Amino acid sequence: MLKPIRQAVILGLDWGSSSIRASILTRDTRHPENVYNEDSIPAHDEHYQKGAFNAALYLDGIGKVYTGEAIDEDREPVPSKPFFSQSPQTGINAIDALLNGLRADATWALVHEGMEEIAKTVFKSIGGFCNGNNELDELYCIDEIGLSYPAHWRLGERTKYEELLRKVIPKESAWVKPDVDISFHVESLASAHRLFSSPRLIGKIMPPSKTPVLVVFLDFGGYTMKSNANDLSYHRVGETFSAFGGTQLWEQQVGIFCRKYVEAETNRPKLSPRQRAECLEMFHREIKKFETSEIEPMHLTYRIPLKEGHLSYSVCLPKHSAENCFWNALAGPIKLAEKKIAEAVTLSSRVKVVLSGGSGKNTVVQARLRSACERLGVSHPYCMNQKLAKEDSWNISRGAAIATANTISVHESMANGAAFGFQRGGYATLNSPEGLRSSWEEEIEVSLDLNGSRSWKRWCGDTTRIKIICDPFLQLPDRKTHLRFSSCCDVVELPQPSKGYWEFELRFAGDGDDLRLVVERGYMGHTGRKIFRHMPTLELPLYYDPSSCCCLIKTDVDDEGYGLLVTETGEIVACPREPTRNHLERGGRPRLGESGNIRKRKRMAPARRGGVGGRQGKAGVKPTGHLPELKPPNYLPKSTRAPVISQFNGSTDGLPSAHLVRETRSMESSRRENSVIPVVSDTVVGRQALSPECGVTNHSFWEQATVAESGP
Questions:
Q1: Which CA distances in Å does 660 have to 136, 186, 238, 239, 441?
Q2: pLDDT of residue 521
Q3: Does residue 257 fall inside a structural domain?
Q4: Which stretches of sequence are listed as region Disordered (predicted)?
Q5: Is residue 58 part of a domain?
Q6: Closest listed residue to residue 344, CA positions, set 691, 672, 678, 626
Q7: Among 10, 5, 17, 6, which Cα is nearest to 393's?
Q8: Which CATH number is 177's domain given?
Q9: Count of domains in the chain?
Q10: Alpha carbons 75 and 403: distance in angstroms, whole number
């Protein structure tokens, strides 16, 4: 008997703070489907839409650790997501104390048991979905999994997440590929991929225009608010940024208030877990009814059972107490969002704000962001949740699957317009509280693109640093000679050159899974007339990262946010956390020992296929320091000054990720409009990041007064 043909699919998984959601994406037709939990009972919990999987644990040691959808109202549930961290902060003092006290080992054993039960429950439903419920259903085989994760997660959390899933995924099954590839995507980027996969939604956000648009994507989730500026070609501009807060913390604040309120009433017994749950369920129903920009007083009721019937009590949150609970939980994320919108306005005259996530549904959050947009002359935020109301909770899981499916080869990325270049920088001692900053030139010539390689010659002083950067879509629709600094991803920092002239050149070597970026270096002495010494060739393995849509280094090193550095011997390590004092005084290289222990990082999932250009490693655990954080120039959007030197405030590592501050000089742009580069391009309609009306003055200053070195 012939085996039924199964369609290859990608699984997208979103492990949220309150629930878990899964989506399937067919590889050939890109048809998305949500995997619904048929056992879910939304009446038990107002946190999430019907069809999601409950993700709460019970760690009191009484009964089952994980009860699935059978909510135990006599026990206090604990969100499971924080337990991917080795030092979780659950927001529940009693649980946090257990995890660090005498009962820590026993409590962690319960955590591990419960997490495994959650994963088994989810994958049991996913297996049933792939096998079909009847003869008419399609049969699926998962050949790749895309996992979303918060921007603040590091190597430990991601590795623990993957190990948990691999432990419960069947080793031999028709519905999942053995040793299935697993890739990782930041939650806010996954949500952006979901949004930009819909032509209908793209049209709503970005009407046809010759002028590029900068999209600020704000995802207000349960525990963190994350944001990134992202364009229709998906390449990210600036690091994602996060602030602690959200509806989960808001709920915790209300729960604390309820407990204290009842304790203050001398004639009432203490609030039991069941009664606390009743109050919080009513709280979630109340906030869903909000229709104004004001926090309203709340009356949360709970019942005390009697031998016959029950007594009903109320917890009254007056307006000022309700407001305190809200702002204690959401002030940080809202203020950070307002700040980033203001920064975006300094970078582009056309800014769009997209709002998503559970807390983004709240009318108070929406009102504050609308006011911020009005003050800055930006149109009101586009509320993604309202446009996808029936399935908005699955945005991230769908986006993780879509981002995983967008994996292409490095050669295909180059054909899409990617270009590499060298960027010169140095340590500058400035009159500032920090005293030391890293400065990087903003005029960067193209050294390698699809059309070939071009050598790059520069003077290097005692503290000069050189790094390779990549612009994902520079050469579309037409060829350019300089990279757009604001749109570039840092790839890797090179060994620190000695004083004198140097010539650098890039080229590709190998093919398929073995594609490498080759770096040729020649020392030309103090005259710069000819090469006196050829340095050892550096060969760096490349892969295409579908989350940031850029070609990056494929490595096992975890940069921990400090970026990647290649040594003279070709070893890839994490950049030093900071330069040592003698490094600055003698202009020497940072010694490997000074950077701390080499931090190993789990490599991106291995290549899936060969073929032309090869499909390189997945998004996996990507380097986290390869994009500078967006920081606006210190001038208004209509200024005609051009930014010429970037300074990373307090950033003393190789690939800076701290605040970006742009120095400006009194240079007038030759164009009619300002010379600020709109860093997001509408490549779907073939627009480039630099609009025809907007020029950039190609000048950079490398003066002794600005950088602590001088030329010959």
A1: 56, 22, 10, 11, 13
A2: 97
A3: no
A4: 602-638
A5: yes
A6: 678
A7: 17
A8: 3.30.420
A9: 2
A10: 38
